[in-house]
Amino acid sequence: MPKISAKRQITLPASQCREVGLEPGDEYQSFVADGCITIVGQSYGSAWGCLDHVKGDSSVSEQQSRQDAIEQRRKRVNP
Prior knowledge:
The chain has 79 residues and is an alpha+beta fold. It has a domain at 1-43: Pemi-like Protein 1, Chain: D (Ribbon), CATH 2.10.260.10. It has 2 helices and 2 strands, in the order αββα. The chain has a two-stranded antiparallel ribbon with strand order 1-2. Strand 1 and strand 2 form a beta hairpin. The radius of gyration is 18 Å and the shape is flat.
């Protein structure tokens, strides 16, 4: 089983990388949700247009949106 190094580095099994098409030097994103880390390989244009249907609310500032997200997270962690 792979372990996390002292520098917080991980080694992904070669078989899993081959299965999803990840190569040395590829860029990726990682996300935390429900206590799990998900690694997603990035490819140019892979997200193109995926948020076209989302319309922003100009009455809410970026700072207020961020603060609301922080408060919602705190409520989930400390009910």
